[in-house]
Amino acid sequence: MRHESPTVLQYGTQAPRVNGGALPTVGLLIFVTHVACQFVLYRGRVVDQLNFGDSVVFFMPLTLALVGYALVWSRVAQSKPWDGARKVAFVIALTLVTGFFSLLGSMLLPMNMLYGT
Length: 117
Description:
Elements: H1 8-13, H2 22-46, H3 54-78, H4 84-115
Helix pairs in contact: 2-3, 2-4, 3-4
């Protein structure tokens, strides 16, 4: 039996492969970066009395984390054989869930454990 190489059309119809170990690592890296950024900005505001607004201290790290999570989940959804609406719903739902836990972790460390504000 002769093995034929895929044509250009077959490349476009095949679902992209997702590395099972890389995406959780990237997700964990986003979480750690979000917590560290929140910690540094909040510490600068409370301890060092730097004049940062709420949008910089709280919303900017969360927005960047949500964008990162959306990119990770969209890569996962891209490999699924679903229609477009289901992929979008999957990405939005899991981005919000992981964003919530990331926000919880980023608020828990600097506010409750270190400075008690």
